[in-house]
Design goal:
globular; TIM Barrel; alpha/beta; 8-stranded mixed β-barrel; two-stranded antiparallel ribbon; about 30% helix; about 450 residues
Length: about 450
């Protein structure tokens, strides 16, 4: 066991000083030669042994998710894993934790990641598609075996094909269940980087240069403290976290949950749903409506579930925040919105992100502009953040006019140690609810936010 772990880790060791000549099995005229060189120079892949790249070798799911984690810059993550086949000390554990928390992967079953399984071509492009933020897929695929692409992977294959990130195999087939080779992985990562950095989608496309922003020191003493009684938290008969006798149980959903059986959700004890209405892409900055918004809001309301809304913002100035609020108000008009409309801004640090350097002052200005428009339209506005982002990306002392939705995933549902007041707590991203395939975020609403 020890030897196999070392060998697998060696296959992914980052050695940025190498060159193509390092690999005896990569001919200079091979179709994948440039990609192998790029992958090594950028710390994504290296050889499996000295002088050996093994271009036709298979790639395990653990290997691929680690490559993707390295492409993302190996961001810190404190989220644990519920996968029983991912040991905490495994060389790929951090990558799996990150991919799971970011929604990049959902495993092969509720509690299984399948780290040693060979990644298939449709699994590969689906992880990359989710990593990119699930953009609009593009034209339908025309491969001869299009019908064999799994439903959950179809949009990803459409997107990857339309952008040129993947190409078919001989005979105009995509071969969705075929195993991806190491050479293919290198080529796909290089094409992905090229596509996200081209003039059509530059690193900071159409992003106004942020003016000089004055430094700001938050007034910590002005922020109400967390006065909740830990003893009042409990697990309900349905398996959900509750607080006292009057709290409400909720979920938040988007395109990522796919088609939802809302009748089953209501029967499973869910009181409310915060539904994503739309989002701004973090690379190109375009505003989109969530593909499943209408189905989700109509299904939830038809089954007596209270509805709130969130917009995933990547605004880099107040004008963009106002544009997001206007789109939100246009899309929710005519629906019974009884829970708040939420401004959800999350810093994306990927190489293609246009928001990675946006200041906290600007983010807070955007939150205020969004919330003011929402409240002027007659809805309750709300902000969202985690313990790591409060007073780092979002100055809570400037947002006390609005309720706060805390995102803090704790191990074994331990009570959050967040020191400030919050009105609703998103306590896990690994929830299981009847009517929803796969994972879903679970929330406990302690303050009565219904309008």
């Amino acid at each position: 066991m020890r030897k196999s772990i070392i060998a697998a880790a060696l296959a992914l060791t980052v050695l940025c000083t190498g060159a193509l000549a390092d690999f005896n099995d990569v001919p200079g005229d091979a179709w994948y030669a440039e990609a192998v060189s790029w992958a090594q120079e950028n710390g994504i892949m290296d050889g499996v042994a000295e002088g050996v790249f093994e271009p036709d070798g298979a790639v395990t799911r653990a290997m691929f998710v680690t490559m993707l984690y390295r492409l993302a810059g190996e961001p810190e993550t404190s989220v644990g894993s519920t996968y029983t086949d991912v040991a905490a000390d495994a060389w790929y554990a951090e990558a799996v934790y990150w991919a799971s928390s970011e929604g990049v992967t959902q495993g092969i079953a509720d509690t299984l990641f399948g780290p040693d399984g060979h990644i298939t071509r449709e699994q590969l492009v689906t992880m990359l598609y989710r990593y990119q933020g699930s953009p609009i897929p593009g034209a339908a695929i025309t491969y001869a075996d299009a019908a064999s692409v799994s439903d959950w992977a179809y949009d990803a294959v459409c997107w990857a094909s339309a952008t040129g990130i993947v190409s078919g195999r001989d005979g105009n087939v995509f071969d969705p269940s075929g195993e991806a080779t190491r050479a293919e992985c290198a080529a796909i990562f290089m094409r992905y980087d090229s596509v996200t950095q081209t003039p059509e989608t530059p690193e900071t496309p159409d992003t106004p240069e942020e003016p000089d922003v004055p430094e700001y020191t938050p007034d910590i003493d002005a922020i109400p403290v967390n006065r909740y009684d830990d003893d009042e938290f409990a697990i309900s008969e349905d398996g959900y976290l509750i607080y006292g006798d009057d709290s409400l149980v909720g979920i938040d959903v988007s395109y990522h949950q796919g088609e939802i059986d809302w009748e089953a959700v209501a029967d499973d004890g869910i009181d409310f749903a915060i539904i994503r209405v739309g989002y701004r892409g973090y690379s190109e900055g375009v505003v989109y409506q969530d593909e499943f918004f209408e189905d989700n809001i109509e299904g939830a309301l038809a089954n007596g579930i209270d509805v709130g809304i969130y917009f995933f913002s990547q605004a880099v100035n107040v004008a963009e925040a106002i544009e997001e609020a206007e789109a939100t108000l246009d899309w929710i008009e005519g629906y019974d919105i009884s829970f708040p409309v939420v401004f959800d801004w999350e810093r994306i640090t990927y190489s293609s992100s246009r928001t990675s350097n946006t200041s906290a002052v600007t983010v807070t200005d955007c939150a205020i502009a969004f919330c003011e428009m929402i409240e002027e339209a007659g809805y309750t506005a709300m902000t969202y953040g985690s313990p790591n982002t409060v007073n780092e990306d979002l100055y809570i002392d400037r947002l006390l006019d609005y309720p706060f939705w805390l995102a803090h995933y704790t191990s074994d549902l331990a009570i959050t140690d967040y020191p400030y007041h919050y009105d609703m707590w998103q306590y896990t991203s690994n929830g299981q609810v009847d009517g929803i395939e796969g994972r879903v975020d679970l929330n406990v609403c302690i303050t009565d936010l219904r309008s």
